[in-house]
Design goal:
alpha+beta; 443 residues; 41% helix; five-stranded mixed beta sheet
């Protein structure tokens, strides 16, 4: 009788234990006041497996060792003190050389295009979808466009760590010199050109220009979301009205004969804006300059939002994030994902946002702290967040060939040697020949 009662008691205890475990340990959600299960947030720490006590994780990035340490390494080492963190700088060292030397690395940094044109051909990409779910990474915490830009055939190749957009930098001293009012946020291209052309003049033998921008960066990030090659047909797609509209920007900014002659002698670059001569009043370039303005902008500068097309007032640029991906050859994928979850957390993003890094998160809390510790507190930092992201173009692994060709051809456009229609037709024809040759090699 006693044995029967004891057996019954043990059964009851076991049942109660199972119920308690299901109630308290349910990883699908928590019980709300109505007695139903409410879904848990994607970043629920209880959903993440415990971090390995010790791990060796190697990064491969485009940063110098000093840049990596300042913006990534020091934070990761503090967060994971028992981890050994290594860094390989890709400056002067190609991916092919790394692979040929059988160098093992766990995390790499790249732009979205790099997934297809660099890491996938080397079989280094890895679908992080299940790993992100396992670690409770909330993909909905990123602003629109970022995750889509790193997803190919439903495979997630990376998470955005830092973002870059384009802004309009301007030289206050040149505006003051000629008594011209400063630019403002929200200007259209038409308004910007009207301002810029007031600077297109030659004074005492010095040719000035109102506006320049980096062709390659604007081509890749263009506000019309135009791609270069159709990924379905492998056909070059630049001979159309939207690309004509984009190239006409370069026609307009260089319409002054003096500017065209200057470009023949010395094609415009960064240093026309920020160099000792300082002959360009405005320059459209990446926000990455802001975080390192002391080194990159040795002039009396400020900025406003990038100009927009009149009919697309909310379209800034396409996302241009620095993504971190886990390699297929990594032997420490869980440790690597613990690190990436941290690098995409509000905790980390708030810290680097204060210094001037642009966050890919939606978080208003991160945006509110942006530039808090930046040394140049007199700048118009709000310009960074005026424009929204334009939709991401269709990427193609061979598109860099077309970007390079278009960049070469824009020289002929800016110097007045050829018109937009001729340039686009030549890029279409020459680019298609290159793509066909490259596709033939892959057969």
């Amino acid at each position: 009788m006693l044995k029967r009662r004891m057996g019954l008691l043990l059964v009851i205890i076991l049942i109660l234990s199972i119920i308690a475990a299901c109630t308290n340990g349910n990883t699908e959600g928590t019980v709300n006041t109505e007695g139903t299960v409410a879904p848990s947030g994607g970043n629920d720490p209880t959903a993440e497996p415990p971090a390995p006590e010790n791990a060796e994780v190697t990064f491969s990035t485009i940063f110098s060792d000093e840049e990596f340490e300042a913006n990534v390494g020091s934070y990761v080492k503090k967060k994971f003190p028992t981890y050994t963190i290594n860094h390989i700088s890709n400056r002067g060292l190609s991916l092919e050389q790394l692979v040929a030397a059988q160098t093992k690395f766990d995390i790499y940094f790249t732009r979205a295009g790099g997934f297809l044109n660099a890491y996938e051909p080397m079989k280094l990409t890895y679908d992080m979808t299940e790993l992100a779910k396992k670690h409770g990474v909330d993909l909905a915490s990123f602003a629109p466009g970022f995750i889509e830009s790193a997803t190919f055939d439903n495979q997630l190749y990376g998470l955005p760590i830092f973002n870059d957009s384009l802004v309009l930098f301007y030289n206050r001293d040149l505006f003051d010199k000629f008594g011209i009012p400063y630019p403002k946020d929200g200007m259209t291209w038409e308004e910007t050109f009207a301002l810029a052309h007031q600077f297109d003049r030659n004074e005492n033998g010095t040719q000035y220009m109102g506006l320049w921008m980096s062709p390659k960066h604007y081509f890749r990030m263009n506000s019309l979301s135009q791609g270069f090659i159709d990924p379905e047909t492998n056909k070059v797609t630049v001979d159309n009205d939207n690309w004509k509209r984009i190239l006409n920007l370069f026609t307009e900014l260089s319409r002054n004969p003096g500017v065209q002659e200057m470009a023949k002698a010395n094609f415009p670059s960064h240093d026309h804006f920020r160099g000792a001569a300082g002959v360009s009043a405005m320059y459209v370039f990446l926000t990455e300059w802001i975080a390192v303005s002391q080194e990159q902008l040795p002039l009396n500068w400020d900025m406003v939002s990038m100009p927009v097309f009149k009919d697309l007032p909310d379209n800034g640029t396409q996302p241009y994030a620095n993504y971190a991906g886990i390699t297929s050859i990594s032997e420490n994928k869980d440790a690597a994902m613990h690190i990436l979850k941290y690098l995409t957390s509000e905790e980390f993003q708030m810290e680097v946002s204060k210094k001037g890094k642009i966050s890919p998160l939606k978080s208003q809390q991160v945006k509110d702290l942006a530039f808090e510790n930046h040394p140049d507190q007199d700048k118009n930092f709000d310009a960074v967040y005026v424009n929204g992201n334009a939709p991401m173009r269709q990427l193609h692994p061979l598109e860099d060939h077309i970007v390079d060709l278009m960049n070469d051809k824009v020289t002929e456009l800016v110097t007045g040697q050829k018109d937009v229609n001729t340039i686009l037709r030549e890029v279409q024809e020459l680019g298609q020949q290159t793509v066909d040759q490259e596709m033939e090699k892959l057969k």
